[in-house]
């Protein structure tokens, strides 16, 4: 059987999603790069833009850009249906979209900000599984479908003033374990990566919420004493999408510079 070649990546305008789009495209995948391409009025910082998404696909010649809200079931189902129609099927879905909010104890956080984190970081992954897994299962046996998500070391550690983010990322870990069991014998696997402090706009916003001078301040908490690069996380996701990861499912794989030890 040939290597799977058609993937959807969300949160593709920047950060881990953009790096994953580029990595998969470089490996010969046809990639549909998805992002909302604009801000969420519930959140106080800038999200990825349409221009950034277009720049991502410009660096990945086999990728195409699609503007869609990952929290909207109809929009994401439309993306999946269109991919199946245009490309004959789907082999991998990478749920990389994420946002963050906090800076105060959980009981003081604006409920709208809390809901935004839960909607994007967990609800959108549930939605992705609901619409993508049936498409992955439509490939004939023997199949190598991949459902991949981005969790976080925050799923394992209680990070003060980031309770909603911790809860959402822990939810992803639980979901992936359950999907791994539910997909038993299908040839479709479900796995997640759990990055530590990674050089992304989310980390920049985290630094602001903690009143730090910049994201580089987080490097000291990791035994590697440096930040993780988005391309390093993308390399792990690309490996999980490939043939060499056939034996893995239901796994939450840390890529955190030792932060979780």
Keywords:
261 residues; alpha/beta; Rossmann fold; seven-stranded parallel sheet; 7 helices; 40% helix; globular
Q: What would you say this structure looks like, in words?
A:
By secondary structure, the chain is of the alpha/beta class. The chain has a single domain (6-255), classed as Rossmann fold (3-Layer(aba) Sandwich). Helix content is 40%, strand content 15%. The chain has a seven-stranded parallel sheet with strand order 3-2-1-4-5-6-7, sandwiched between helices. The chain is globular.
Number of strands: 7
Shape annotation: globular
Strand order of the largest sheet: 3-2-1-4-5-6-7
Q: In CATH terms, what is the fold-level topology? A: Rossmann fold
Architecture, CATH level 2? 3-Layer(aba) Sandwich
- CATH classification, class level: Alpha Beta
Distance between the termini: 38 Å
- What is the number of helices? 7
Question: Short summary of the structure?
Answer:
With 261 residues, the protein is α/β, with parallel strands linked by helices.
